[in-house]
């Protein structure tokens, strides 16, 4: 089974309850608050922020949108958001929530697709190009080849547009006790990697591919696992490196000021979230 197919199967099965647990609601709120306080850092003009740099039209692509965290974060400051996810059930929840909120498909709409499929990337067409902002939240640790992923997403930006991702910082975990309280002195990388429907054969397969040089993304800190990999994490330098390899410029990576509490795969952890941004170069700008 391909990585994308494993992801589809896994997220199809959990779409209804994916982000409804109280701790998840809290994490999503913390991410929302943090990002809305960093609009300047993201580095594109938005709409409706009250700033003199505001513009009339801002188009966002929310890639691996799931139920739409990044769509909700930026909803007030963009004019249109399109979503893409490999899981039909996640897409169904995404669209149902937008309609329930009274938002028309012309403003918010997601479809099933996989831009990273090397034989048959989808969706296609002009409406899926030229975005001002491409977001991808808690998703890069699920992608098989992060350089390819970042490059594909860059190609869907307008020149000067920005790719923004978030994920977990390697070494940024603290263990929690049964009550969810952080256990001091347990700093490290504690989240298990979960392999859904995969076994040693796939590990070996990916090891072989990495050995054969087919995967740039297996260097330490740039990609912790290649199958549906809950818990994988990235170093700041690793993200900077694969963003640069993908051809992004003006790259910066920051971490959220405080850890967030998560329960994943039977573990209770306080984890550090990182945000990374990189810009599609404006052709010719640096040749003057
Ligand atoms: C952990 S969820 C994150 C969902 C959402 N972005 C959020 O922050 O809540 C990861 C999402 O990535 C999607 N996904 C995984 N691989 C993908 C791919 N190659 N193309 C599109 N979506 C993918 C999954 O279906 C899932 O909805």
UniProtKB/TrEMBL annotation:
Name of protein: S-adenosyl-L-methionine-dependent methyltransferase
InterPro entries named in the record: Methyltransf_12, SAM-dependent_MTases_sf
CDD domains: AdoMet_MTases
Transferase as UniProt keyword: yes
Entry's Gene Ontology molecular function annotations: methyltransferase activity
Domain of life: Eukaryota
Annotated ranges, domain Methyltransferase type: 61-163
UniProt region (Disordered), positions on chain: 177-221
GO terms classed as biological process: methylation
Sorted UniProt keywords: Methyltransferase, S-adenosyl-L-methionine, Transferase
Composition-biased stretches (Basic and acidic residues): 200-219
Alphabetical list of Pfam families matching this protein: Methyltransf_12
